[in-house]
Amino acid sequence: MLQLSNVSFRYMKKPILQDVSFSFPVGQIIGLVGENGSGKSTLLKVLTGILRPSSGEVLLNGTPVTRRSADKIAYLPDIDLFFDFYTGEQLFQHYASQFEDFSYDKACIVAEFLQVDKSVKLRQLSKGNRGRMKMAATLGREVPYYVMDEPFSGLDPIVREQLIKGLIQFTDIEHQTILLSTHELYEVEPILDQIILLQNGSIIAHEEVETIRDMSNKDAVQWMKAFYKKG
Amino acid sequence: MTIDFSRDKPIYSQLVDRICGDILKGKLVLGDRLPSVREYAVETGVNVNTVQRVYKELEAMNITETKRGQGTFITTEEERIALLREEMKTQLADHFLTSIEALGFSKEEMIVVLQNKS
């Protein structure tokens, strides 16, 4: 169980996250949505131990999360992967050296599913293919938590669709949890169990996706938009 | 295949309708084996938990049966499918009546239109 407990984060006196509390159960795909600047990236970095909260705690199975908790959490950042002179193959070797839970074979299978060539240098790949490679490397790690910062950002609809399918195919819903931030809510909604809406560094709403439709005959995008009309 | 889901109904219920529709159209036949939960989830671009709910619902409706270790199969009971046909016709009729009432048309007017349709 991964938990945020009254987490606040300030950057140079500016509050980015304000008293955020949430429990992320195992076996769900959770979408984090919110406007640009709402604090999504920061929340994910705090969750993975890359940033330390100014106050509050991030707990993984009761123990505070540090960068070393990285052994239970696989993080896919929104920036391009470093080492762009690496080939995909070298990237996988690097991950294998860093993470005990990395399965080289699985990463290769995912890469094949996503139709990306691991023998090509990352910087020579198109943006879409770099996105595929990032996903293959990340899913190659067998961990209980995947945290992905805008994994579909800037990618064309075909790539997005393939990445979404790859996500479903290569994760085990019973033992793994995926938390991903996205702006492409319309396309991603069908794979989400739950959605969290972040506004100005606070969680202003969270709901099970099917409940939104069941109760209000609206989809998640319409549900989300309603919060902006009010405020 | 990724489906464009309509916005107003739960996704699991749209998939239940879709599979029932496939049966009525003959795309799925008595005794056919459905894809595994994960396969269907990947095919349709939907969460595995949702597909599990779909398959559970179909089983509760007696449209399908799960055989341990073998998978999920469309029923072999023809009567159940005949009943499905009737249920679907009634559902369509209900939707139709709601739509026409909203515009103030009567059932009788529409019957005339339908009969004149070739």
List the helices and strands and how they pair.
The complex is a heterodimer of chains A (231) and B (118).
Chain A: E1 2-11, E2 14-24, E3 29-33, H1 40-47, E4 55-60, E5 63-64, E6 73-76, H2 88-98, H3 104-113, H4 127-139, E7 145-149, H5 157-169, E8 177-181, H6 185-188, E9 194-199, E10 202-208, H7 209-216, H8 220-230
Parallel strand pairs in A: 3-8, 3-9, 6-7, 7-8
Antiparallel strand pairs in A: 1-2, 1-4, 4-5, 9-10
Chain B: H1 11-25, H2 37-44, H3 48-60, E1 64-67, E2 71-74, H4 78-102, H5 107-116
Antiparallel strand pairs in B: 1-2
Helix pairs in contact in B: 1-3, 2-3
Structure keywords:
heterodimer, A: 231 residues, alpha/beta, 6-stranded mixed beta sheet, 4-stranded antiparallel beta sheet, 8 helices, globular, B: 118 residues, mainly alpha, two-stranded antiparallel ribbon, 5 helices, 60% helix, 7% strand
What does this structure look like?
Chain A is an alpha/beta fold. Chain A is built from eight helices and ten strands. Chain A has helices spanning 40-47, 88-98, 104-113, 127-139, 157-169, 185-188, 209-216, 220-230, and strands at 2-11, 14-24, 29-33, 55-60, 63-64, 73-76, 145-149, 177-181, 194-199, 202-208. Chain A has a six-stranded mixed beta sheet with strand order 6-7-8-3-9-10, sandwiched between helices. Chain A has a four-stranded antiparallel beta sheet with strand order 2-1-4-5, with helices on one face. In chain A, α5 links the parallel β7 (145-149) and β8. The longest helix of chain A has 13 residues, at 127-139. Chain A is globular and about 50 Å long. The model of chain A has no long low-confidence stretch (mean pLDDT 92). Chain B has 118 residues and is mainly alpha-helical. Helices cover 60% and strands 7% of the residues of chain B. In chain B, α1 packs across α3 and α2 (37-44) crosses α3. The longest helix of chain B is centred in the last third of the chain and has 25 residues, at 78-102. The radius of gyration of chain B is 17 Å and the shape is globular. The mean pLDDT of chain B is 93. The chains are: A alpha/beta (231), B mainly alpha (118). Chain A binds chain B through residues 27-29, 161, 164-165, 168-169, 173, 189-193, 209-210, 213-214, 217-219, 221-222, and chain B through 2, 5, 7-12, 38, 41-42, 44-50, 53.
